[in-house]
């Protein structure tokens, strides 16, 4: 299987990064929802979750950059057989939304914590330099963009999974196989 996408199918790099991002996003959304609901008394445990949320979010940003490069460097495979014109439109818009979320989520989170003066202790050991001034309005804009981005992500992911699962389970078109190793 070639590393980059080709008319024969998705490349190994796209497939590997797709599942790494899916796992990272599952962890990030779960951590985000849990940590913001923990009581103040949770102290260091809550701080640790915040720290790992910030760290993995920045790792996800780096992965998204490589992924975008891989998508541009290769040639997209043709549409999967069996997709209606409406399905193709949904897939196209959902993928744009997902790519947008892959950048909006980490960047808005970063802006929020840096402009808010909270900072990032990367992997619990490295305090990242803060390139932003301490501006409350910018922090608030970052925070609300982060929350709006999570809603965008949820909508795009719901559309993405609806098409993938419907065509995999109901129509047996093997859509899921296109993103699995060895195809
Ligand atoms: C893959 C990337 C990311 C995803 C999917 C993600 C997702 C989320 C979600 C779902 C929430 C909960 C929102 C709420 O219920 O209020 C959240 C909160 C938060 N995230 Fe992220 N996040 C990502 C990256 C980051 C990064 C890179 C940072 C900082 C460097 C960050 C900082 C925060 C902070 C500080 C909160 C708490 C916001 C609040 O107080 O309401 N996130 N995130
Ligand atoms: C369990 C969750 C997921 C499943 C089962 C899944 C499944 C798939 C499948 C089967 C394809 C290939 C569609 C085709 O043949 O054209 C695909 C493509 C794609 N998926 Fe997912 N996906 C999941 C989660 C995600 C997440 C979390 C993201 C992004 C945040 C994402 C972003 C994409 C993108 C952008 C593509 C187009 C190919 C590319 O440029 O990378 N998926 N997905």
TrEMBL record:
Gene3D superfamilies: 1.20.120.1770. It is found in: Cell membrane. Belongs to the cytochrome b561 family. The chain crosses the membrane at residues 16-38, 50-70, 98-127, 147-169. It comes from Roseomonas fluvialis. It is a multi-pass membrane protein. InterPro entries: Cyt_b561_bac/Ni-Hgenase, Cytochrome_b561_oxidase, Di-haem_cyt_TM. This is Cytochrome b. Its cofactor is heme b. Coiled coil: none annotated. Its main location: membrane. Keywords: Cell membrane, Electron transport, Heme, Iron, Membrane, Metal-binding, Transmembrane, Transmembrane helix, Transport. Residues 10-182 form the Cytochrome b561 bacterial/Ni-hydrogenase domain.
């Amino acid at each position: 299987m070639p590393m980059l996408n080709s008319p024969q199918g998705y490349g190994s790099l796209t497939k590997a990064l797709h599942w790494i991002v899916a796992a990272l996003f599952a962890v990030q959304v779960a951590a985000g929802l849990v940590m913001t609901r923990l009581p103040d008394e949770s102290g260091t445990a809550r701080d640790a979750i915040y720290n790992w949320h910030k760290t993995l979010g920045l790792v996800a940003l780096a992965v998204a950059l490589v992924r975008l490069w891989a998508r541009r460097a290769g040639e997209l495979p043709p549409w999967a057989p069996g997709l209606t014109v409406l399905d193709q439109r949904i897939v196209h818009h959902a993928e744009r939304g997902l790519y947008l979320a892959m950048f909006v989520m980490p960047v808005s989170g970063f802006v929020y914590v840096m402009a808010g003066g909270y900072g990032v202790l990367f992997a619990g050991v490295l305090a990242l330099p803060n390139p932003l001034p301490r501006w409350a309005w910018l922090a608030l804009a970052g925070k609300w963009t982060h929350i709006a981005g999570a809603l965008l992500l949820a909508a795009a992911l719901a559309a993405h999974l609806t098409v993938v699962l419907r065509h995999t389970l109901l129509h047996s078109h093997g859509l899921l196989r296109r993103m699995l190793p060895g195809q």
